[in-house]
Amino acid sequence: MSPMKAMLFAIPLAVTTLLAPTASAQQPIVIKFSHVVAIDTPKGKGAERFKQLAEERTKGRVKVEVYPNSSLFKDGEEMEALQLGSVQMLAPSLAKFGPLGVREFEVFDLPFMFDDYAQLHKVTEGPVGQMLFKKLDSKGIVGLAYWDNGLKVMSANKPLRMPDDMRGLKMRIQSSKVLGDQMRAVGAIPQVMAFSEVYQAMQTGVVDGSENTPSNMFTQKHHEVQKYTTVTNHGYIGYAVIANKKFWDALPADIRTTLEGAMNDATKYANEIAQKENDDALEGIRKSGKSEVIVLTDTQKAAWKKAMLPVHKENEARVGKDTLQEVYKQTGFKP
Predict the structure, then answer these.
(1) What is the distance between the alpha carbons of residues 91 and 270, in angstroms, rounded to a whole number?
(2) Where are the domains of the chain?
């Protein structure tokens, strides 16, 4: 028996009975919503807004307990906890679904899939986003919404204006085959590393640079140890708000509909905050004077796209040709 399963058997009856929820004046339906970041982040604020709206609109028939900073389960244990029913909602990164065997979500790791947030949201808020969520059904998971972290930029201690400028650089990435292929496509050396270790690695020269959203870089002070930040907007970091399928499907229909509306409004709120924080962070990096912000010309950006485009073909079988073609159709991408 795994430690997580043993933990589930030790959960009080009041929690385990939530797998078959009922609403009454005496006993509200309790939803445990766990996530891995702080309250004052876009995702943290989105979770709090969902709690507020859900409780108000159901008039107390639902109570949402939000657990930030992996305070309920360690990061890495939460997905199994959701599948076992010991937590009802999560907001993991999209990268978490590959290890579950649902590699189609890795389409979001492909470089230059989206020119802007409008194109991105045509996918996440449209039929492709729902198609991807349906692939989670067999895992006992229902997808509720996509929450943005943002579009990624590059940083290094040398100016990155053309893809050849990346040659030989040790670049930190999240664990992802697609992201590794992306770095190798421009001659860089991918280095998988925990986000918490990146600042020191940059400071000591263990890595030469990284890719991330401006807000992530700014809050972790990466700009203090990186001389250049290039606005490539080449990739996307996002999350999926998900629920235990058995729990969600067993909710009274009127409550489920109300919660879906609350989630839609919380999603708009969280995504607007994420975009503003990225815009503000980029301006903060620029004003700091510690990292020069480079904005690519159209010609330079076209060269980056051309250099990284083979990564799409390399990973077509991995993410699914049909998935890739559907995203192309929604965004108007011309490979």
Answers:
(1) 12
(2) 3-94+132-148+239-276, 153-235+279-328
DSSP characters for 289-331? SSSEEEEPPHHHHHHHHHHHTHHHHHTHHHH-HHHHHHHHHHH
**What is the rounded CA–CA span in Å between residue 139 and residue 101?**
9
| 153-235+279-328 CATH pick, 3.40.190.170, 3.40.190.10, 3.40.50.2300, 3.40.50.700 | 3.40.190.170
335 band by pLDDT with thresholds 50, 70 and 90: confident
Give the whole-angstrom CA distance, residue 186 versus residue 170: 12
pLDDT for the residue numbered 6: 47
Provide the phi-psi class of 317: left if phi over 0, else alpha when psi is between -120 and 50, else beta: alpha
What pLDDT score does 64 carry?
Answer: 98
Is-same-fold flag (3-94+132-148+239-276; 153-235+279-328)? Answer: yes
In tens, the pLDDT along 216-228 reads 999 999 999 999 9
Which residue type occupies 9?
Answer: F
- The whole-number pLDDT of residue 73 equals 85
Query: What's the CA gap between 240 and 98, in Å, rounded?
Result: 13
Query: pLDDT confidence of 70, banded at 50, 70, 90?
Result: confident
* pTM for this entry: 0.90
Q: Determine the average pLDDT of the residues in 192-207.
A: 95
d(CA 106, CA 115): 17
* CATH assignment of 3-94+132-148+239-276, among 3.40.190.170, 3.30.565.60, 3.40.50.300, 3.90.650.10: 3.40.190.170
Distance CA 37, CA 67 (A): 9
Tell me the HSE value of 97 on the side-chain side, using a 13 A CA sphere.
Answer: 31
Place of tokens 């912000």: 293
State pLDDT tens for residues 242-276: 999 999 999 999 999 999 999 999 999 999 999 99
Mean pLDDT of the chain, nearest integer = 92
> Side chain identity at 108, as an amino acid letter?
F
Q: Give the residue from 141, 137, 28 showing the smallest Cα distance to 90.
A: 141
